[in-house]
Amino acid sequence: MMRRFAPLRLAAFSTLAALVAAPATSALAMEPAVADALSGLQSRWAAIRYDLPEDQREDAYAALAERAERAVAAHPDAAALHAWAGIVRSTQAGARGGLAALSLVKQARESLETALSLDPLALDGAAYTSLGALYYRVPGWPVSFGDDERAERYLQRGLAVSPDGLDSLYFWGDYLHEQGRDREARQALRHALEASPRPGRERADAGRRAEVRALLDTLDD
Hints:
Helix content: 55-70%
Shape: globular
Strand content: under 5%
Number of helices: 10
CATH topology of the domain at 17-160: Serine Threonine Protein Phosphatase 5, Tetratricopeptide repeat
Mean pLDDT: 88
CATH class of the domain at 17-160: Mainly Alpha
Structural class: mainly alpha
Largest sheet: none
Number of strands: 0
Distance between the termini: 25 Å
């Protein structure tokens, strides 16, 4: 059976205690051109995911992925842009679905791994969270690289960097639900609803909170 593909907002995806104390890379610390490119990718991603009709999303994600690749080419050392290139590709895979999405999730994994090699703390460990989501949502061997143990390791590293983050907690809760650990999933998801707002990410926050509530409603049935 094919696992479901889904976006990561992103995410995604820090290491353990040693990294928790280190400051995460923020948009304020980026070069202006990188920060502008990142903001554009994030805003467009949220508009596609939460505002566009479902039948229009795949083409829109494909165009956004090309935009992300151009941004990466212009700023190859920017971990945040590599992370978002991976997030966009993984979400495009979710919109496409089925075996046709497998090449996209491989591209997404490569981008996220590159982001980790450059700066594992970029964007509060978003690459860790996004990689974790990929590993539990794609099929396992021999179809693809899905692996629940790796998924859990990456998701926990994302939580180590962002223990109160909306995305890190949402994907951890979703993973726990997939594993049949619904009591723990409820705790994570309720914690997610307490996450602080992210300036400039209002649309993404609203959409993600709605997803958290929808999953909680399923668990409480």
